[in-house]
């Protein structure tokens, strides 16, 4: 393939929120998106399992495609897998981490909510980010895999999930002076409207735009553009015929199709 190729990896289709941001600044690159739907959601898995799955699948995809940059479009995976992955693959890798630093700068009340998966909120890495960049703030951490599932339901079936999202946010509703919410999972930007409706005094922030700028910077010296970008999605369950909704979503974003892989 001519031009540069970006490989996106996630446990589900939430990583399309990162792809959408990158597409705004790099619309003419080849895109390969792979998601591990066999083990979805990652937020409830052990660190060992997540590391094994990420490395196995990404190594397989980089053996099949000439990849210029890898985007681990999953907060849970990014908080634990990047050191191991970088030691095994000699390709630039960009991970996504909770937008704690910009949230601390944005907050006027210094009361912040962090919405993420149970795995992400329990990581030492997340605590280090808070200590380094938000030590003057109170950070209410909410670990939820339910919101991940609701985001997938909204994307796949255009389901109205407002009431269900609001139920997941009861703890944040009772947090006084909350004015910023960090969407610490790539699925959560798809629920931004519902979250801000449930918490009208708080502004949502995520790391998608920052990731896009980082990817653009890393590709700056390469022949990025191609005349007809290749866009294809892959998943770890080979029974593609059972995933019509996912196929429709990827086509909506300009992908040629969805296929299963032999991991």
How would you describe this structure in keywords?
Rossmann fold; 2 domains; six-stranded parallel beta sheet; four-stranded parallel beta sheet
Which fold does the CATH topology of the largest domain refer to? Rossmann fold
Distance between the termini: 22 Å
Estimate the global geometry from the Cα principal axes.
Answer: globular
Number of E strands: 10
CA radius of gyration? 18 Å
CATH architecture title of the largest domain: 3-Layer(aba) Sandwich
Provide an overview of this structure.
- With 263 residues, the chain is of the alpha/beta class.
- It folds into two domains: 144 residues, Rossmann fold (3-Layer(aba) Sandwich), CATH 3.40.50.1860; 107 residues, Rossmann fold, CATH 3.40.50.1860.
- It has twelve helices and ten strands.
- The strands form two sheets. A six-stranded parallel sheet has the order 4-3-1-2-9-10, with helices on both faces. The protein has a four-stranded parallel sheet with strand order 6-5-7-8, with helices on both faces.
- The chain starts with a strand and ends with a strand.
Topology:
Layout (H helix, E strand, L loop, with lengths): L4 E6 L5 H10 L4 E6 L11 H18 L4 E4 L2 H14 L4 E3 L4 H7 L4 E6 L1 H5 L1 H10 L4 E6 L2 H12 L4 H7 L1 H4 L6 E4 L8 H7 L4 E3 L2 H11 L12 E5 L8 H9 L5 E3 L3
Parallel strand pairs: 1-2, 1-3, 2-9, 3-4, 5-6, 5-7, 7-8, 9-10
Helix pairs in contact: 1-11, 2-3
């Amino acid at each position: 393939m001519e031009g540069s190729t970006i490989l996106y990896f996630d446990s589900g289709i939430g990583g399309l929120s990162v792809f959408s941001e990158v597409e705004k600044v790099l619309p003419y690159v080849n895109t390969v998106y792979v998601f591990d739907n066999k083990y979805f959601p990652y937020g409830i898995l052990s660190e060992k399992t997540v590391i094994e799955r990420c490395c196995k699948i990404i190594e397989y995809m980089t053996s099949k495609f000439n990849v210029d940059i890898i985007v681990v479009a999953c907060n849970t995976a990014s908080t634990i897998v990047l050191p191991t992955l970088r030691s095994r693959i000699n390709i630039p890798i960009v991970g996504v981490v909770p937008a704690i630093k910009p949230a601390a700068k944005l907050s006027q009340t210094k009361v912040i909510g962090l919405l993420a998966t149970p795995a992400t909120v329990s990581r030492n890495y997340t605590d280090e980010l808070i200590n380094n960049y938000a030590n003057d703030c109170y950070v209410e951490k909410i670990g939820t895999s339910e919101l991940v599932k609701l985001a997938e339901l909204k994307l796949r079936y255009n389901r109205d999930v407002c009431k269900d999202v609001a139920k997941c946010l009861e703890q944040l509703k009772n947090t006084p002076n909350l004015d910023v919410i960090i969407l610490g999972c790539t699925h959560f930007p798809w629920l931004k409207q519902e979250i801000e409706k449930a918490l009208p005094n708080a502004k949502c922030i995520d790391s998608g735009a920052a990731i896009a700028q980082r990817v653009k910077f890393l590709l700056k010296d390469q022949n990025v553009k191609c005349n007809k970008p290749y866009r294809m999605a892959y998943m770890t369950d080979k029974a593609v015929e059972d995933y019509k909704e996912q196929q429709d979503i990827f086509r909506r974003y300009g992908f040629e199709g969805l296929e299963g892989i032999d991991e």
